[in-house]
Design brief:
With 115 residues, this protein is an alpha+beta fold. The chain has four helices and four strands; from the N terminus they run ααββααββ.
């Protein structure tokens, strides 16, 4: 889980270089407990919801549908493995990961069942 979060936050920080120069870069991590959630086909009484939000430029439309695939990168020198690995790690905990992105607001949402 730590590695999954590091990969997502690392991407956010890389997307924020312009904002960092302007002095208004922002990454927000939110956690909350969700009740009675369905993940895949399974119903869980409790789940952890974890959001990572940044105010960077957003994910280009040309990449949006493919960012979790291996070797998909929009960065010079990027290997395109960070999100693939993050998704693998989350799935190892029976969880899901999804993304909403528009210019100025990108959110990665992790949902993981709690015992
Ligand atoms: N928060 C974000 N804001 C804008 N674009 C993003 C964000 N997160 C991911 N991306 C885009 O998705 C692509 C894929 O991310 P991913 O972490 O899988 O690979 P990478 O960062 O290019 O390489 P690495 O394997 O070093 O992580 C990034 O190259 C970037 O274009
Ligand atoms: Mg990355």
């Amino acid at each position: 889980m730590i590695q999954a979060l590091l990969n997502i936050v690392h991407n956010a920080s890389q997307a924020l270089s312009e904002r960092i120069e302007q002095g208004d870069a922002r990454i927000v991590l939110r956690t909350r407990v969700a009740r009675q959630v369905t993940i895949g086909k399974q119903r869980y009484r409790l789940a952890l919801e974890l959001h990572v939000e940044d105010n960077g430029p957003g994910i280009p439309d040309s990449l949006k549908e493919r960012i979790f695939y291996p070797l998909v990168s929009g960065r010079e020198g990027g290997s395109g493995l960070g999100l693939t690995l993050a998704q693998t790690f989350v799935q190892q905990h029976q969880g899901t990961i999804e993304c909403d992105s528009e210019p100025g607001r990108t959110v990665f949402k992790i949902l993981i069942p709690l015992p």
